[in-house]
Amino acid sequence: MLSATALRRTTLVVLWAYGLWYSWESCGLSGDGSYFLLEIVRVGGFLPEDFYPTRAYPNAISQVLVVLAIQAGVTDLHWLARLSSFGWFALPALLYSLALVRVRHDAVLQAAVVAVLGIVFMTTSFMVVSEHIPAYAAALAAAAWLAASDRLRLADGLVLLAIAILSLKTYEAFIYFGPLLAAMTAWTVLRSPSRPTAATVLHGLAAALFLGAAWLAARAIMTYDDDVYFASASNEAWDFKKNPTFCLSIMAALIVVLWALARPQDLAGSRPYRWTGLALAALALAPLLTLITPLFGPPYLYGQNIARMAAGPVIVAIIVFMWVHKSTSPLKPKAFAVLASTDAGRRLLAFACLLFLATLPWNVMLVRLYASYLDVVKEATKVRGGVIAFEATRLPSLPYLLQGEAWTMPMTSAIVSQPPGHGMIAPPQAYKGWQPFPLSEMPDLGRFRWRD
User: What's the pTM value of the predicted model, to 2 decimals?
Assistant: First the structure.
C-alpha cells in the first residue's frame, strides 16, 4: 500500500493536472462562464460588486488572472478564456489543496478531504462558474484548519479569519455552514490548552463572521424575488439521481459508512473496501452509461450541476465526521478507535483516493464533449455571419454537445467566432427564458478576437 504522503501527493498532482487541461480547453465558458467573460472584456476589468453582490468575493478572486491579462494588453479571447477558466477552477482547488496539506499528519482527516474532492467537487463542479463550488471548498478548508489545531496560534487565526471573510459573500449555503463552523471554532478555543490573547481574538472574530455569513445568507434567501427559479433550484436537491457520478460516489461511501457502524472492527482490514469495488468500477465506467439514454441522457453537463444542492449536506456530514474524529468524547462510535491505527487510517485514505480517481473518466468525457461543442459553434460562425438560427446549425443533430443552458449560446458563439461577433447563434426557438442582451445589442468585442 502506498504511504499517506504518496497518496496525498498523487491526489494533488491529478487534481491540478486535470484543472490545467480543463482550463486549456476553455471549459470555464460553460454555464455562466461566457457571460462573465464577455462582461469582463466589455468593462476592461473587474465586474462591479453589485453585479452579483451576495457572491462578490469569490467572483472577484476568480477574475484576477483574466483581468491582469487584459490590463497587460492581451486581446486573444482564446487565451483569456483559458485564464478565466483557470481562475474559476483555481480558487476552490487551492482551498481544497490547502485543506489537504493542513491535515497531512492525520490520514483519516486526509481521507475526509479527498472524499469531498471525489464525491462533491469532481461530480458537481464542471460548470465552474457556480457559487456552491468555492462555498463548499471554503467550508471544508475552515473545518480542516480547525480539526488540525492542537492549540491556538496567531497564523491559524489569520487563515481562519480570511476564510470567514470570504464566506460573508459566497453562497446561501452558509445559512447552515456558518453556525456549524462557528460552533467548531468555539470548540477549538475551549479545548485549547492555552488561549493567547491575539489568537483567541482572531478565532472569536472568525466565529462571529461565520454567524454573520449565516445571517447574510438567510437575508439573501428571504429577499430573493424570483420564486420560480428558487423553487426550481430547491427541487434539484431531490433530483440528483440525474447525476450518475454523484450517486455512484455516494453509494461507494455509504457502503464504508454503514459497514463501519455495523462491524467497526473490520476497518482494520480490507474487507469493507473490497465491497465498494462494484460501485467504484461503475463510477470509473460511467461514460458507458451515456449509451443508456433513457436513464442518463444529454445534456450531461447540466446533469452534473443538478446535484449542487444535494452536495451541501454531504459536506456537512463530512465536517461532522472530522469533528467527531478529533473529539475526545467517550460516546463517539467505535469505528473511530479502529481508524486511529496507522494502517486503518491509510486504508481509508487509499479508498478515498480511488474514489477520487474513479470520477476522472466522466470528467474527461465532459471536457471532450465541451471542446467538441465549441468546435461546432466555431464552425457554424465561420459559415455565415450575423444572427444564426440554432436550428440551421449542426447542434440540433448533436444533442449531447449542447452543454449548459440555451441563454448563453449567443454570448459563447460571439466570443469564439472569427472575426469576433461575426456570427452569433440564437437560442433554440422553443427557448423563452431570460437573456442578458437582446441579440441586436450584443456588446462589441472591439479589438478582442478568438485565435486558435
Answer: 0.94
